[in-house]
Design goal:
2 domains; alpha+beta; Alpha-Beta Plaits; single chain; Multidrug-efflux Transporter Regulator, Chain: A, Domain 2; three-stranded antiparallel beta sheet
């Protein structure tokens, strides 16, 4: 037997209230269930921890528990997706950052190889990526967007320099 994590996504035939979500979570307490309701309130997802011998048994145990619970609560639901993960994979996923890596003027200056003052000027250009967060210390940009911008800027500068010498 091993600990496996099962996430079940479902669509409901009618609005799925937050009160109903609490009732479902309570009924599935033995599985340390965590439930979230879809934004449109027409379904949701339930994450369960299952002790089983293998992925298939974990899936069947979780599916049966969820279907039985939803039926007991009077919910007509259709399961739309299921994911089963081993404990190690689940823990690895938890360690992954939820938010993208962000950088400010000082880090961008290092990436591009110019001063912070020059970066402040360049961020005013329409081609520069938009900040994803504005803090009291200044705007923050995703490192991926900045790297892409730096690549295109470098290519454009290289192309312009090449054209000038031809």
């Amino acid at each position: 037997m091993e600990i496996l994590h099962v996430n079940i996504v479902f669509k409901a035939g009618e609005r799925f209230t937050e009160d109903l979500a609490f009732d479902v979570s309570e009924r599935l307490e033995a599985f340390a269930a965590v439930m979230s309701v879809a934004q449109d309130l027409m379904g949701g997802s339930i994450a369960l921890t299952v002790e089983a011998s293998g992925l298939t048994n974990a899936f069947e145990t979780a599916r049966s528990a969820v279907v039985t619970t939803l039926q007991a609560e009077g919910v007509d639901a259709t399961i739309t997706s299921v994911m089963v993960q081993a404990e190690s994979e689940f823990q690895e996923e938890l360690r992954a950052p939820v938010y993208p890596e962000v950088v400010g003027f000082a880090e961008i200056a290092k990436i591009v190889g110019v001063s912070r003052q020059r970066i402040r000027q360049l961020t005013e250009k329409p081609s520069f990526p938009r900040p994803v967060i504005r803090t009291g210390q200044g705007p923050l940009y995703t490192v991926h967007a900045v790297n892409r911008w730096a690549e295109t800027r470098s290519a454009a500068n290289h192309s312009a320099a090449h054209s000038a010498t031809a």
